[in-house]
Write a structure and sequence with these properties.
Elements lengths: L2 H18 L4 H17 L1 H8 L5 H12 L5 H12 L6 H16 L16
Helix pairs in contact: 1-2, 1-6, 2-3, 2-6, 4-5
Length: 122
Amino acid sequence: MNTGLISVRYAKALMQIGLETKNVSEILYQNGTNFYEILNEAPDVEDFFKNPIVKAKQKKEFVKEAFGNKFHEIMVNFIGVVIDNKRERLINDIFRNFLDIHRKQQGIKSVKVLTAISIDDK
């Protein structure tokens, strides 16, 4: 099973939902960015999702409790679909791919600036 391909398909599906639903694409991008940062900054959260002992119902309840008031309903439902389809172990890859696809769609490029001296905000 090609897990990279699976995570890209989920990411593309979320992107498609955002494009088809009026004025939601940017909201989903912000929600996805926040969720991806949480997964990377709090390894316990990612471990919770990947833990096979924790039941899907508990994971979905956690998502609704933790993110239900902060995230768009589509995002909460999407995470629930990922859980229902037992793809939680790919959750980090799904959101990384989603953010990459969104940036590419919007023409956003990532750059790294190396300078000999400090630069200010101007």
